[in-house]
Amino acid sequence: MINRCVTAEKSQIKNHKQALAMYNKILVTLDATPTDRAIIEHVKPLAKWASSRVVLLHVADGWAARTFGSDAISREITEDTAYLAKVRAEFQSAGIATDAELAYGEPVAEIVKWVEQKGCDLVAMSTHGHRFLADICLGTTATRVQHSISVPVLLLRAR
């Protein structure tokens, strides 16, 4: 009987460790709008449970960012940098190891490039919840990213 209990306990520990190793690095894409709050609040407990490292990524896509890349100096860049620092501090105060990165250019291309170059175990994104016609005409960043990468994507519709 004792051997069965020990074996069962070891099995549970092994399964928990495998679950924890599933999401070592979570990429959270942010667009610096109120829709970010949904994914931020969802990822915090997930990252704590899985002992994940979180990387926050925002893609600056204004004229200066698209034209000058990392050499861009604009109000957008200043605000985006401050926003990333604020959200990073929020995750860190919750005890979650967090990095923040600012990319420049077209959001889908930059997110896909980041995933391909740096790797992660999960991409977490909020969606704006456009309706059918807008999605057909515009396409969504989330949908285009999801179909361009091979890692799991967590999509959470903002309320």
The description of the largest β-sheet is: 5 strands, parallel
CATH superfamily: HUPs
Order of helices and strands: HEHEHHEHEHHE
Mean pLDDT: 85
> What is the CATH top level name?
Alpha Beta
How many beta-strand elements? 5
Helix content: 40-55%
Please give the alpha-carbon distance between the first and last residues.
Answer: 51 Å
Give the radius of gyration: 18 Å
Q: Helical region count?
A: 7
What count of structural domains? 1
CATH architecture field = 3-Layer(aba) Sandwich
Explain how this protein is built.
This protein has 159 residues and is an alpha/beta fold. The chain has a single domain, classed as HUPs (Rossmann fold, 3-Layer(aba) Sandwich), CATH 3.40.50. Helix content is 54%, strand content 20%. A 5-stranded parallel beta sheet has the order 3-2-1-4-5, with helices on both faces. β1, α2 and β2 form a beta-alpha-beta unit. The N and C termini lie far apart (51 Å). About 3% of the residues have low confidence.
